[in-house]
Write a structure and sequence with these properties.
1 helix; five-stranded antiparallel beta sheet; globular; mainly beta; four-stranded antiparallel beta sheet; 2% helix; Jelly Rolls; 173 residues; single chain
Length: 173
C-alpha cells in the first residue's frame, strides 16, 4: 500500500491516523481535528439541579469548544428537577427516551398560569435564555433521557426557589 503523505510528516496517533498527535489550541486541545467522545466517556462533574443528572459530552473541558455545550440529562422515574434557568444560554433539547415534561409559568391576561409541555421520544424542545422552568418525569418505571445543546460553552444552571414569569419579579414570600 502506498500513500501520498510526505516522509517528514509528524508521528500519527492511532485513533486519527491522518492527524498529528500534537497538543495546542484552546485548553491544550487541538482545534484542527475532530473529537470523539464515547458514550462511556461523558463527564458528570457539571452544574446540577436536584432530581436530575447532567453529563457533558461537548464542552470546553472535554473538547475545547468555545460557543457550544452539549450533553445528556437523565431524570429518574417519578422525579422532578428543581426550578432553574440557564442564564443567557439558549437551550435545545432532543428527547431520546421516556416521556419528560417541561414546566414553566406564563402570564395569560394578567394571571400567572403553570404550563406543562408533554414530550415523547423524537420530540424537540426549545428553552429561551433566562426562562425559569423544571423538567419532570411522571413515569413510575422509565427513566427519561434527553440530549441538550446550549449556546454557551459550558452548562449554566441557576437553581431557583420557585418558578416565575420571565420579566416579572419572583415572589418574596
Amino acid at each position: 500500500m502506498t500513500t501520498d503523505l510526505p516522509a517528514e510528516r509528524p508521528a500519527l496517533d492511532g485513533f486519527h491516523p491522518d492527524l498529528p498527535d500534537t497538543p495546542g489550541g484552546v485548553s491544550g486541545l487541538p482545534r484542527s481535528r475532530v473529537h470523539h467522545v464515547r458514550a462511556d466517556g461523558l463527564d458528570g462533574a457539571t452544574a446540577q439541579s436536584s432530581g436530575m443528572q447532567r453529563f457533558a459530552a461537548i464542552s470546553g473541558k472535554m473538547v475545547g469548544s468555545e460557543r457550544i455545550w452539549m450533553g445528556q440529562t437523565h431524570v429518574a422515574p417519578s422525579t422532578a428537577s428543581s426550578d432553574h434557568h440557564h442564564g443567557d444560554s439558549e437551550t435545545a433539547i432532543y428527547v431520546v427516551s421516556g416521556h419528560p415534561e417541561f414546566v414553566f409559568l406564563e402570564d395569560s391576561d394578567g394571571t400567572e398560569q403553570e404550563v406543562t409541555v408533554h414530550a415523547a421520544p423524537g420530540d424537540y424542545i426549545f428553552v429561551p435564555p433566562f426562562v425559569p422552568h423544571r423538567e419532570q418525569n411522571p413515569d413510575p418505571d422509565e427513566e427519561a433521557v434527553v440530549v441538550i445543546a446550549r449556546t454557551t460553552q459550558e452548562s449554566i444552571v441557576v437553581n431557583l426557589p420557585a418558578l416565575y414569569v420571565l420579566g416579572s419579579e419572583p415572589d418574596k414570600d
